[in-house]
Amino acid sequence: MPKTHITMKVNGAEVEGLVESRTLLVHFIRENLAMTGTHIGCETTHCGACTVDIDGMSVKSCTMFAVQAQGSDITTIEGMANADGSLSALQEGFRMMHGLQCGFCTPGMIMRAHRLLKENPQPTEDEVRMGISGNICRCTGYQNIVKAIQYAAAKINGVEFREAAE
Amino acid sequence: MIPGPFNYYRPATVADALKLLSTLGDEARPLAGGHSLVPMMKLRLATPEHLVDLHGVADLKGIRREGNTVVIGAMTTQHELLASDEIGRSLPILDETALLIADPQVRYRGTIGGNVANGDPGNDMPALMMALGASYRLEGKSGAREVAASEFYQGAYFTALEPGELLTSVAIPVPSAGHGYAYEKLKRKVGDYATAAAAVVLTMAGGKVATCKIALTNLSETPLLAEDAAKAVIGTSLDPATLKKAAAAAEAIMSPAADARGPVEYRKHVGGIMVMRALQRAAGRAS
């Protein structure tokens, strides 16, 4: 099949590549750009491990073709640390609250939580849970993921994080 | 899971999209949000030779009020419906339903046009469109036509869309102020299609139901307008006996498939319960 030349911005840098039209965005990111932080879980739009941020939207990159991302502005987990290399509030939250066990779902969780907190900087616990309902974790039971996101929200809002009584 | 090869097109206008679809013929498919079609392509259950991506067509986006009608461009996403003040004010049942579709990521991409045009009996918006008396604008090479949602669905994945036609917008008459509404959807988990679901739009006068529309999702090969069930509640205060009568009338027209969501009897039974719950919740919201 003929290939199409595409360009887009990924984590602030202009990138380009030659792709078949059927190449999924997640494969372009992992294989052409060699950024393997974005994971492939179910490949069926259910698990959310491949979530990236595209033009201000959380998108499952296994369900979009790379050619469709022409000209877009993408952030992946590799673009989440602060400019000085320190952990962003969300990354710190997942570390401090033990928001991961095997870590497979974590890139997708953080990318989804990133957009959730941009749209709703002070979510309730229910809103956090509904906000990450497109991301599946098979280890944690979600409790600590929810806390990690609440920790990040508190940090971003400059208030002290208090864990809800259990 | 990688789809079969195809040629990709990204037209910028409806006219160009229609021209492409008619030139490329039967092996071309329009691509909206892609969250039904792309998974089907990965499984090779769909193998279009040409994909006409509608994301570049700005005219297919947006929500506008035209008198007493809300017109929604086909490429408007579920996320955009949820963010719209106009929808929240005049058609809150769309918000309630959009929140029950898939998950946040899918709602950023999934479109109203794709949802209503695909003809998947599990999609939630078609029943709503029937209950609201909506119509679809279908554009083809030889012009445009309006088809009522209640006339659009012919079978699972079979609709009134002719080859080469595009569904470009949805027109919904705004229900009267003070109307009651509810969409009750039973599903096994977040993101699932309905085991059974019912949409109700009604008005009340003096504690009694004045007007009522009931429509059902995933309880037949097409969405269903439950006209006898709606008739059964007119003039009543939705007492328990009336609710049971309405549920029985709705169950009489259901013919769900037996699948992983349950056997036929179960799905009809819970379908009746969805009707009763939606009626009660809608009445509670009406003023």
From TrEMBL, chain A:
Keyword Magnesium among UniProt keywords: no
Superkingdom of this protein's organism: Bacteria
SUPFAM superfamilies, per database record: 2Fe-2S ferredoxin-like, CO dehydrogenase ISP C-domain like
Keywords assigned by UniProt, alphabetized: 2Fe-2S, Iron, Iron-sulfur, Metal-binding, Oxidoreductase
GO molecular function, one term: 2 iron, 2 sulfur cluster binding
Keyword Iron-sulfur included in the entry's annotation: yes
Domain [2Fe-2S]-binding: start-end pairs: 76-150
Gene3D superfamilies: 3.10.20.30, [2Fe-2S]-binding domain
The protein's name in its UniProt record: Carbon monoxide dehydrogenase
Species annotation: Bradyrhizobium jicamae
TrEMBL record, chain B:
Gene Ontology terms for molecular function: FAD binding; oxidoreductase activity
Keywords: FAD, Flavoprotein, Oxidoreductase
Pfam families given in the database record: CO_deh_flav_C, FAD_binding_5
InterPro entries membership: CO_DH_flav_C, CO_DH_flav_C_dom_sf, Diverse_Substr_Oxidored, FAD-bd_PCMH, FAD-bd_PCMH-like_sf, FAD-bd_PCMH_sub1, FAD-bd_PCMH_sub2, Mopterin_DH_FAD-bd
FAD-binding PCMH-type domain mapped to chain residues: 1-177
Record's protein name: Carbon monoxide dehydrogenase
Organism of derivation: Bradyrhizobium jicamae
